[in-house]
Amino acid sequence: MHKIQFLASTTIDSAQQTSSVNLENIDNYAIQVIVSAVNSPSGITVTLQASNDDTNWIDIADTDTDITETGSVMYDVTDPGYKYVRLDFTRTSGNITASAILTGRERRV
Question: What pLDDT is recorded for position 39?
């Protein structure tokens, strides 16, 4: 099992994206976004994005999550058909403090 912390505890106070994670050797993965602080009103949404070239990104359908309180958001993905994944944070107001961890099962040959 792979474990990658690709967002250390960070204040999200503007639109931003995390670094990407290469999924080339990963079959299934889960991303946990841990929100440790919310400054009201929070107008922040997190969305999973996918890419096959690590340059051109597209939102993954039905992954938009509005952040309104502390806690965790979990994305669980089986057999992704893309090579890279990242988180996209959009902001209309407020800020949050968040971190993110990806765990994934190594692809079996």
Answer: 87
